[in-house]
Amino acid sequence: MPEPIYRRIYEDLRRQIENGELRPGAQLRTEIELRDHYEASRNTVRDAIKLLITRGLVETRPGQGTFVVKKMEPFVTTLTGPPDSSSGEGDTYKKEVGELRRPSNTSPEVQIHMAGSEPATDELQLSEGTTVVSRHQQCFIDDTPWSLQTSFYPMSLVERGARRLIQAGDIKGGTVAYLKEALGIKQAGYHEAITVRAPDDVESAFFKLAEDGGVSIIETRRTAFDEQGTPVRLTVSVYPADRNQFAVNVGKVPPEIEDPSSISRPPGARSDASTATETERNG
Amino acid sequence: MPEPIYRRIYEDLRRQIENGELRPGAQLRTEIELRDHYEASRNTVRDAIKLLITRGLVETRPGQGTFVVKKMEPFVTTLTGPPDSSSGEGDTYKKEVGELRRPSNTSPEVQIHMAGSEPATDELQLSEGTTVVSRHQQCFIDDTPWSLQTSFYPMSLVERGARRLIQAGDIKGGTVAYLKEALGIKQAGYHEAITVRAPDDVESAFFKLAEDGGVSIIETRRTAFDEQGTPVRLTVSVYPADRNQFAVNVGKVPPEIEDPSSISRPPGARSDASTATETERNG
DNA sequence: GGGTATTTGTCCGTATGTATT
DNA sequence: AAATACATACGGACAAATACC
After folding, report:
1. Cα–Cα dist B206/A79, whole Å
2. Where would a tag sit more exposed on chain A, N or C end, judged by fewer CB atoms within 10 A?
3. What pLDDT is attached to residue B213?
């Protein structure tokens, strides 16, 4: 068996999708029709469709059929910006979205944690037994769930006078401005770690992701520091990878490039690196 | 059928993996044993295992069995750095990594493209009919395939005297230094777009990813500009998400945080060094 | 609202091929 | 060579979701 049947079917369907015979949104023939067409069993056809799903090319809708995926216009988050501009509570996010899309978010929910029992201990350099405040938000764009954000603050900030950190609800002007006003803490910079992983059950439900895997989660952990190098906040954000992009600007960059609203790269373009590899293998 | 059988089996096995009953590297019971244990058919057990595979929790080896995956130590790439970072930095990083990890890469392969027929046209602001040089590399760490990189340069740079761009093989000192030396072009900054998507077949093969999906690909597109704001290079890199992390530093950040070699990441032991693969380091 | 046809989802049993030990 | 374990492939049955009349 030089090449499995389900893989030959997969490659034939993929070719039809990639050269435009099957356009985004189009419906594939039913599993029964494909079974007859390829003279294979329905289960073998289904194996080919599963491969197409894991490659992100099609989606199945029970009772309806199998469809070529329509990709959403991705939302671009710029990770680099003035070091004191990241509020961790959606202000930069609102600003970047601009006029065309309608962002909204839930009112922050506040919780108190013991350090060591939650995942901010390392980044905030806390010792055992100290407490941490978390403020959690759900963010939407055009009523589509877009991200989940949780900011962690050492409880010592509250004890020093930043009482509003433990009150639920928005802090007008953002927490960066509030901390500066209340305690004179100026945010001097931040470090952000970016990872990609599979969604957990909560994320899968909130973002309405298919259970069968396809979509990954992008997690960013932004640790903000004051001018003495003391960590003052950790913001953990999770984004579904199918509707988000990120941008980084370093040095002098033309303004029309730096501003993400002017660039939109429609997805579907294939990886340059891999096409190069393919050519190399063939040549 | 409130919850499918294969899903209940999946949940049970996942629980055993996540709470340590099944440790990384351990072998699961065979499909036959699992069939008897759960009183289901072997195909149903296999459906559960497929879910575990797409979640990145196990891997199957024909003739051997099914094993809990050992997570590799992630490699951290810092996206922010001096905008004109030349090759000297790359060498430093290489040395720093070199103790524990051995980075290597293939010699760059050169191709000539017509603009419009390949995907660098937008970023390099090329008109129809102009030509582009691409330089492609495969990068490894400890003999593990780590990334694929392709840099695109307008052919006009070659015509102005940067002949070595169209010669295969390393450019000693890096291309940034070479362009400055040969043409007086100083790299003033860059813009980087980061996306996550499913792997294609070439990437799946090169990175040895499971065919059944699970692992996503991180694609970065770095457009570099000279001091006049003219794009001089586009570098497209693809990384498998299961062995890569990224970092961004903005403003004033404590050195022990900015340099990841001194901090320990949550999942594993040490994650040392930010990356710079030796040649074609495009700061 | 109800009923029916269509389409995908789940589950089973079986047979055979391929890789590893 | 033989045994073991996963991979592929088939056919059948019923359930669940959806669309349409």
Report:
1. 30
2. N
3. 65
**Higher pLDDT pick, B270 / A70:** A70
Contact B213, B241 (CB under 8 A): no
Size of interface A-B (CB pairs under 8 A): 213
Query: Among chain A residues 18 through 37, which have CB within 7 angstroms of nucleic chain C?
Result: 28, 30-32
Residue range B34-62, pLDDT digits in tens: 999 999 999 999 999 998 988 888 999 98
**What DSSP letter does each residue of A37-104 carry, written as one string?**
HHTS-HHHHHHHHHHHHHTTSEEEETTTEEEEPPPPPPEEEE--S-TT---SSSHHHHHHH-SSS-EE
- Tell me whether strands B75-78 and A144-154 are parallel, antiparallel or unpaired: unpaired
Interface test with B, best of A75, A200, A248, A270 (most B CBs within 10 A): A248
DSSP 3-state percent helix, strand, coil across chain B (nearest 5)? 30, 30, 40
The end-to-end CA distance of chain B, in Å, is 56
A61: CB within 7 A of chain C nucleic strand: yes
DSSP B143-156: TEEEEEEEEEEEHH
pLDDT at A253: 87
Gyration radius from chain A CA atoms: 23
Q: Tokens 């006049």 label which residue?
A: B228
- For residue range B64-89, list pLDDT tens digits in order: 999 998 887 888 888 987 665 533 33
- B200 to chain A, minimum CA–CA distance in Å? 7
pLDDT mean over A136-150: 86
- In angstroms, the CA B31 to CA A193 distance is 39
Which nucleotide across the nucleic acid strands is nearest to B42, CA versus C1'?
Answer: C12
pLDDT given at position A149:
93
Contact A234, A70 (CB under 8 A): no
**Count of beta carbons in the 10 Å neighbourhood of residue B171:** 19
pLDDT averages per 10-residue partition of chain B, 283 residues: 84 92 92 92 94 87 91 86 48 42 77 78 82 90 85 92 88 85 90 90 80 81 92 93 90 76 38 30 43
Q: Distance between the two ends of chain A, CA-based, in angstroms? A: 26
Q: Evaluate if the CB of A86 falls below 7 Å from strand D.
A: no
- 8 Å CB contact between B96 and B261: yes
- Number of DSSP helices (H) and strands (E) in chain A, helices first: 10, 11
pTM of the prediction?
Answer: 0.81
Res B83: pLDDT: 61
A262 touches chain B (CB under 8 A): no
Would you call B145 an interface residue with chain A, using a CB distance cutoff of 8 Å?
Answer: no
- Whose C1' is closest to the CA of A62: which nucleotide? C8
Distance CA B269, CA B224 (A): 35
| pLDDT tens digits, A170-188 | 887 788 889 988 898 998 8
Q: What pLDDT is attached to residue A252?
A: 86
Geometric angle at alpha carbon A101, from A97 and A103, rounded to 5°? 70
Check CB contact of B32 with chain A, cutoff 8 Å. Answer: no
Hey, how many other C-beta atoms are within 10 angstroms of the C-beta on A22? 20
